[in-house]
Amino acid sequence: MLEPDALVALAARYGIGETLHGRVLIVDDDVGNLDVLRAFLDTDHGVREARSAEEALALLEVEDFDVIVTDQRMPGMTGIDLLAVVRERRPDVAGILLTAYTDMPVLVDAINRARVFRHMHKPWEPEDLLLAVAQASAMVQHRRLNGRLLEALSARSDELKGALDELRSAHQKMLHLERLGTIGRLTAGITHDLRNTLGGLTLLESAFEAQNISPRLMAPLRVGVSATRNLMATLSTLHQFAAGGLAMSHEPADLTGVVHDALVLAGLEMEQRRSRCVTRFAEDLPRVRCDPARVLQVLVNLLRNAMQSTDAPQSILVEVLRTATGVAIAVQDEGPGVAPEIALRLFDPFESTKGSRGLGMGLYMCRLIMDQHGGSIRYVAPLAGGVGARFEVELAGGMNV
Prior knowledge:
The protein is an alpha/beta fold. It is 52% helix and 16% strand.
């Protein structure tokens, strides 16, 4: 992958000049907020302002910008709606979204639909905003240089094909890292908010236990606390992955217990969907060396994918099998299955079977976790006569663990 200085040097060699316009567009329906944003940005940038998404789009038709800084909640089009349109019309412009809310659908839309460069919570710090705009401008410069270099190199002879392929690969890696960076920043904020929520739920659980509340009322609360802990663990995995690595422990474990824990965590959602789970456990299963919490994340993700495969009540099959080298766990649903063209990319990052409803990171994280264990995860055909999708994970095990 080309370093930024090398990219600039290569652009100069091919006569490509400055790609930045030095202009930032700020969008907010509150005049006071626009004044504050302008006060911090107009020292280093040419600043234009708009009081609605529609006004901003009209400005984009007649002027060139590098970065758009927009509020989320505005009359008419939201900030995400605006950035999604900009993504289609001017994909070389970076978007920064400002919001006072940590709403999960908003965050998923920000990543999947609008592809925001940065998501910032109000109240923001001036230094953070200036740094975000500077980083977004640098990314825009490199993206435009990449695009123009691709155009220049594509006109060259076959002897430049190797350089062209390298540049395309660098461009894709940069876009990939851009989204990973966004995910890392978003998950850090969500985890902080969830930690406060979990603290309150834990206190409530302790208070209920001290008052000997009936098991019928305690059970949903305990499931909720466990589900919140599991969600925090998943977000932590996303954050670690975005930062460049996954923390992993290895200890002898009985996968039967891990499967039961996953079924408990998924049980409330399964009950709400009026679905049921059919389980089959082989006898004399060996213990395996693994990180039980990470394997639990994988199984909960597969169970939730299975539940979300159809809106109708269904039977989900969970099998724990002994293999020649260890233990395999299979999860099979009764949904429509996976299209062949998607099946080839199921475990790649940002490839989702749920369309805009998913980040496309779940199965990729499952694959990373299984790779760290020296195990595997695969999509296979359903059992004979079965329908839907079937996923199998396998871990090595034996008496020496």
